[in-house]
Amino acid sequence: MTDDWQTRVDEFWARFDDSDAPRMLAAMRVLVDERPPGDAHALAEWGGVHDALGLEEDAVGPYRRALEIGLEPIAAHQVTLQLASTLRNLGRFDEAIELLQNLDAPELGDAPAAFLALALHSVGRADAALQTALTALSVHLPRYGRALAAYAADLTD
C-alpha cells in the first residue's frame, strides 16, 4: 500500500458526509479502483464506506474478504471490530459476540469491550453486558477500581 493512497483515504474520511451517499460511494470507488483487485486494504475501505453510510449488509462481504486475504494485525483488529459492530446492527448477535470475545487487540483500548457489552445487551444478557462494561471501566478509575471490578464480577456469579 502506498503512503499517497492511504493519505488520500484519510482525507476522504476527514471529509466524509453521510448525507450524500452517492457521492461518498463514488469517491471511495475511485480510490478502491486504484488498488489491485482483491487488495485487502481497499476491500476494508469499501466495506467501511458502506458501513458508515448505514448500508451494513453491503459492508459484511468486503470486511470478511479483507480479513480472509490478510491485513497486518492492527488493521485486522480494526476491521474485525467494525465487522462485529456491523453484524450486531444486522441482528447477527451471536456472530458479533464470538468475534469480540476472541478479539485480542490491546491497541484498540476498551473499544472491543464496549462493543461486546452492546452485543451482549442486544441478546438480553444485561448482567453480562454491564459486567463487561464495568470491568473495562474499573481499570481507569483512580480510586474504587478494585471495588467496581469485584461488584462487576458479582453480577454473573
From TrEMBL:
Residues 41-155 form the Tetratrico peptide repeat group domain. Pfam families: TPR_5. Transmembrane segments: none annotated. InterPro entries: TPR-like_helical_dom_sf, TPR_5. This is Tetratricopeptide repeat protein. It comes from Microbacterium candidum.
